[in-house]
Design brief:
Elements: E1 3-6, E2 18-21, H1 25-32, H2 42-50, E3 55-60, E4 64-72, E5 76-81, E6 84-89, E7 93-98
Parallel strand pairs: 1-2
Antiparallel strand pairs: 3-4, 3-7, 4-5, 5-6
């Protein structure tokens, strides 16, 4: 089970399995009642977790991005490039590798 940590403008890294959310998330979930499923690839997810906080190159369906793997969630990864956080959905990732 993923643990919730309310968004407090904390810029530090969260441990695996934790995520931040806005104060509005609870009301949004109640009012929209979303339903979706995620095709998780556990081995790929685990490989990403092994490289957390390392410099990686991620090839997406649009481009290749190189930066620090600053987060891995159940449905996306977070790559920090020049101080900008990119939240990339797994279905858009072709591969990743350690960057030089």
């Amino acid at each position: 089970m993923y643990q919730n940590i309310p968004h407090t403008h904390n810029t530090g890294l969260l441990p695996p399995g934790y995520y931040m959310h806005s104060p509005n998330l609870k009301n949004t979930m109640k009012s929209t009642n979303p339903s979706y499923h995620i095709d998780l690839e556990p081995v790929f997810h685990e490989h990403l977790m092994l490289h957390l906080n390392q410099r990686v190159q991620v090839a997406t369906i649009n481009e290749k991005l190189t930066g620090k793997l600053s987060g891995v969630a159940i449905d996306h990864l977070q790559l920090t490039v020049d101080g900008v956080d990119y939240h990339i959905r797994f279905e858009h990732v072709i591969y990743f590798k350690l960057a030089k």
